[in-house]
User: Which sequence fits this backbone?
């Protein structure tokens, strides 16, 4: 679930986990947020969707607006992947089913 923190400016750089906590109510493990910036999420065309970060010294920082954009992009990619999978399942023709013995076919 997302939260709206009216006190935080959307473009204010914050340490990575602090910015995520400002947007996502659930507790996110630090290894998960690290994975969001290093490996990201696989998009439909093979591209990786990574959370945008800036380094201040050795510490990754991001904005709450970047977290919201990343969550929206990941959600869109995941829904598109589900729709594509459902379409592929619907595209199975009667001939293909008959070829693998799943329908009775004409006798």
Assistant:
């Amino acid at each position: 679930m997302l939260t709206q923190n009216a006190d935080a400016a959307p473009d204010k750089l914050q340490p990575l986990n602090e910015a995520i906590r400002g947007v996502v109510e659930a507790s996110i493990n630090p290894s998960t947020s690290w994975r969001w910036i290093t490996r990201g999420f696989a998009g439909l065309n093979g591209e990786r969707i990574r959370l945008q970060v800036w380094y201040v010294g050795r510490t990754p920082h991001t904005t709450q607006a970047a977290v919201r954009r990343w969550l929206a992009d990941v959600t869109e990619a995941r829904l598109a992947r589900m729709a594509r999978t459902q379409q592929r399942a619907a595209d199975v023709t009667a001939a293909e089913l008959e070829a693998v013995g799943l329908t009775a076919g004409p006798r």
Summary: Residues 30 and 84 are 32 Å apart (CA to CA). The radius of gyration is 21 Å. DSSP finds four helices and five strands in the chain. Strands lie at 14-15, 41-42, 48-49, 54-56, 59-62.
